[in-house]
Design brief:
- This protein is α/β, with parallel strands linked by helices.
- The chain has six helices and seven strands.
- It has helices spanning 2-16, 41-57, 88-105, 124-134, 149-155, 158-165; strands at 19-22, 25-28, 32-36, 60-67, 114-121, 139-143, 170-173.
- The strands form two sheets. Strands 5-4-3-6-7 form a five-stranded parallel sheet, with helices on both faces.
- Strand 1 (19-22) and strand 2 form a beta hairpin.
- Helix 4 packs across helix 6.
Length: 178
């Protein structure tokens, strides 16, 4: 009886999380990959990891930029280098379109990979988790930090909040260069 119950529970988990089991090895299939980007070099380094998974799985890549217009913390430092008014929505659209172009220019990119882009206003960690739920993402691929280390202590880490609160796997990519 216990063995039967364990098998039913295992099969339910496999079905609910799109997991397959071959020769005793459990494998999770990723159909939708959420790629939050903020325009920083660190977030762009995450592209290769997300694209590699998407290419192997023939998955959809959802490129997301969240503009925190209340604090303007989600915009890259380069946005403030010019003496011009910054439009958070335009900047967000520019960022996701640039990331989409970078992906489409890579050798690993094929027509089997679907790409969608989203730019929204909101609190970054909360919005990323909400979009992951709404879009039924299977994994979130995110950089450890898109900001300078001092900002991490002042603002809190978006990545850390996502790791703690996410109901799906989170692939965290550390900076490749300092």
């Amino acid at each position: 009886m216990k063995k039967e119950l364990k098998r039913k529970l295992f099969n339910k988990i496999i079905t609910n999380y799109n997991i397959t089991s071959k020769c005793g090895v459990v494998y999770m299939k990723f159909r939708k990959i959420l790629l939050p980007v903020d325009g920083s070099v660190n977030s762009e380094q995450t592209i290769d990891y997300a694209l590699s998974i998407a290419a192997k799985e023939k998955a959809e890549l959802i490129i997301l930029h969240v503009s925190d217009s209340k604090r303007l913390t989600s915009l890259p430092d380069q946005s403030f280098e010019k003496d011009e008014e910054v439009d958070a929505e335009s900047e967000g659209n520019r960022i996701v379109n640039r990331v989409r172009k970078l992906i489409e220019e890579k050798d690993e990119y094929t027509d089997d990979i679907r790409i969608s882009t989203i730019t929204v206003d909101g609190h970054p960690s909360e919005t990323i988790l909400k979009v992951a739920t709404i879009k039924e993402a299977d994994v979130i691929a995110i950089a450890t930090s898109g900001k300078h280390m001092i900002n991490r202590f002042l603002l809190g880490s978006v990545t850390e909040k996502i790791i703690r609160q996410s109901k799906i796997p989170v692939l965290v990519v550390p900076p490749l260069e300092d």
